[in-house]
Write a structure and sequence with these properties.
By secondary structure, the protein is mainly β. It folds into 3 domains: about 30 residues, no CATH class; about 80 residues; about 80 residues, no CATH class. The protein contains no helices and 17 strands. The chain is rod-shaped, with a radius of gyration of 31 Å. The relative contact order is 0.10. About 5% of the residues have low confidence.
Length: about 230
């Protein structure tokens, strides 16, 4: 439809946002929807457009989560989750660095800041589909930690130690980065009782050990008394 035959109608009053009336009843100079308008003292204008603050991510994924995490030092840290399962953080204006690539692809982020950490849940917007994580601006850990699935294999070591001779049984406990001790594993595998002779020290295989949020592994006897504690990873 051509507007060449239309007569201009002067608009001498620029008002503001009017939400109490039906749009067809809004007075001249008022607007039922002012989302693209910026008001300033004595005037009105079209608001500026959006600007890209960060370069495009590799493989051009969609962004499935944005959150501002406030650290214990009151630094406002932008967290970004893309559709490939990569979590980024803003390190400086216009720069993103990778935190982890451990999230299942295609999930969305919901999170909250408590106790200096960002607690994150990942879902398809209906159901959770990945384990919850926590982030303290350094470590990206799972929130919950189960105990070892099985006990270690034990053997009598050739060098002397301080464990009394006789039949013993051993279990494993994980100690997380936050100081949480998991429930112990079952007894030592295969022969559940190991008899020490003249050398009273044990050796255990590493199949029950882990990394990441697990910081220490504690070996206990059947009564829960610590036998030895590993070095911090």
């Amino acid at each position: 439809m051509s507007v060449e035959t239309f007569l201009p109608v002067p608009l001498t009053t620029f008002g503001s946002w009017m939400t109490l009336l039906d749009p067809s009843d809004v007075l001249p100079g008022m607007s039922p929807d002012a989302r693209d308008v910026e008001f300033f003292p004595g005037g009105v204008r079209t608001r500026p457009g959006l600007l890209s603050m960060f370069p495009a991510l590799g493989a051009t994924p969609s962004i499935n989560g944005l959150k501002t995490y406030i650290t214990t030092n009151l630094v406002q840290r932008l967290l970004v989750l893309d559709s490939l399962g990569n979590l980024f953080k803003g390190t400086s204006p216009g720069q993103l660095s990778i935190v982890a690539s451990a999230v299942s692809p295609g999930l969305f982020l919901a999170s909250a800041t408590y106790f200096g950490r960002e607690y994150m849940a990942f879902s398809n917007t209906t159901l959770g589909e990945d384990m919850p994580r926590e982030y303290d601006d350094i470590y990206f850990d799972r929130v919950s930690q189960i105990g070892p699935a099985e006990g270690p294999s034990l053997a009598d070591a050739p060098d002397a130690g301080n464990i009394s001779p006789g039949a013993h049984q051993c279990a494993v406990i994980f100690v997380t980065r936050q100081g949480y001790w998991t429930i112990p594993s079952g007894g030592s595998r295969e022969s559940s009782d190991v008899v020490w002779g003249d050398a009273y020290r044990i050796t255990a295989d590493g199949s029950t050990l882990s990394r990441g949020v697990i910081q220490q592994t504690v070996l206990t006897d059947a009564s829960g008394n610590p036998l030895l504690q590993s070095n911090t990873y």
